[in-house]
Design goal:
The protein is an alpha/beta fold. It has 2 domains: 179 residues, NAD(P)-binding Rossmann-like Domain (Rossmann fold, 3-Layer(aba) Sandwich), CATH 3.40.50; 107 residues, 6-phosphogluconate dehydrogenase C-terminal fold (Orthogonal Bundle). The protein is 50% helix and 14% strand. Strand 4, helix 4 and strand 5 form a beta-alpha-beta unit.
């Protein structure tokens, strides 16, 4: 594929990595980044993550074939409203948000109101690091990107967004916004909450100073994602609070069962807890690849292209 102009709204880790990937693969004639701070303009251009950067959203999105929202979830609605008057009538808009139900419900009709087309997407890629300085051109290579079309989605726009993510190295999965949010509440959002809870508890100043000295590689690996942006994860948790609250409740029930086995000295029950976890993780690790390994857009059984 070859775009005339690609605009990235929010040039942090994901936005910067997209810019690098697009420039490296020559997927667009021009890559423009829209940033909030004037000092970020020079930084983005110096790092080479975009061709040009600007704080002017009108200049940024004008004449763009594809606009990708890489900003925090809480900013997407306001930024989309700001750019609507300047979008080309045939422009395609997508996003990288970790929650899709609220985003799709809000942004799809907004884009349609000016003749543009919106398709939700979520690349399953990232890092606890932030900012354009952490960007990598290979960040999306071999990862899964979820597309969340609806009954109102334009087929050409869906094809364009799918081709784009494939071109930067991702494999595609198509899910309804509802199913996406349910699945990532377990596989992505819950682990962040657990990591943050561990960091908060274990590293609490209420414990002796020697506590942190005894936190080795196991603790470091388990809590790595707790180093992510608090603003980003605040928005994600609140936007997906219904799904996340439900799975958090189930997780706490499982922990309560383990605690009961532990308190009662049930050696078989304690061992089964660890054996089952080991077996399931080993089986997951042996899988040839995640869902969506086939080229193109895979339809996951049971998903529907509808919003909540």
């Amino acid at each position: 594929m070859h775009l005339r102009k690609l605009t990235i709204i929010g040039v942090g880790l994901l936005g910067g990595s997209l810019g690098l990937a697009v420039r490296e693969r020559r997927l667009a004639r021009q890559v423009c980044g829209v940033v909030r701070r004037p000092e970020a303009v020079a930084e983005c251009e110096r790092l080479g993550v975009v061709d040009t950067a600007t704080t002017n959203i009108a200049l940024g999105v004008g004449d763009a074939d594809l606009v990708i929202l890489c900003c925090p979830l809480g900013q997407m609605g306001d930024l989309t409203r700001q750019m609507l008057p300047f979008l080309s009538p045939d422009a395609v808009v997508t996003d990288v948000g970790s929650v899709k139900g609220t985003v799709v419900r809000q942004l799809e009709p907004m884009a349609q109101s000016v003749g543009a087309r919106f398709v939700g997407s979520h690349p399953m890629a990232g890092s606890e690091k932030t900012g354009p300085g952490a960007a990598r051109a290979d960040l999306f290579q071999g990862t899964v990107c979820v597309l969340t079309p609806t009954a109102q989605s334009d087929s050409e726009a869906l094809q364009l967004v799918g081709e784009f993510w494939t071109a930067v190295g991702s494999r595609l999965v198509s899910l309804s916004p509802t199913q996406h949010d349910d699945l990532v509440s377990r596989s992505s959002h819950l682990p962040h909450v657990v990591a943050a809870a561990l960091a908060n508890y274990v590293l609490s100043p209420a414990h002796p100073p020697e506590q942190s000295v005894l936190c080795a590689s196991g603790f470091r690996d388990t809590t790595r994602v707790a180093g992510g942006s608090p603003e980003l994860w605040r928005d994600i948790a609140l936007a997906n609070r219904h799904h996340l609250s439900r799975v958090l409740g189930v997780y706490l029930e499982d922990l309560a069962e383990f605690r009961h086995a532990l308190d009662s000295g049930d050696a078989a029950g304690v061992e089964e807890f660890f054996v089952q976890a080991w077996r399931r993780r080993e089986a997951w690790g042996r899988q040839s690849g995640p869902v969506g390994a086939r080229p193109g857009i895979d339809k996951v059984r049971g998903s529907e292209s509808t919003t909540d």
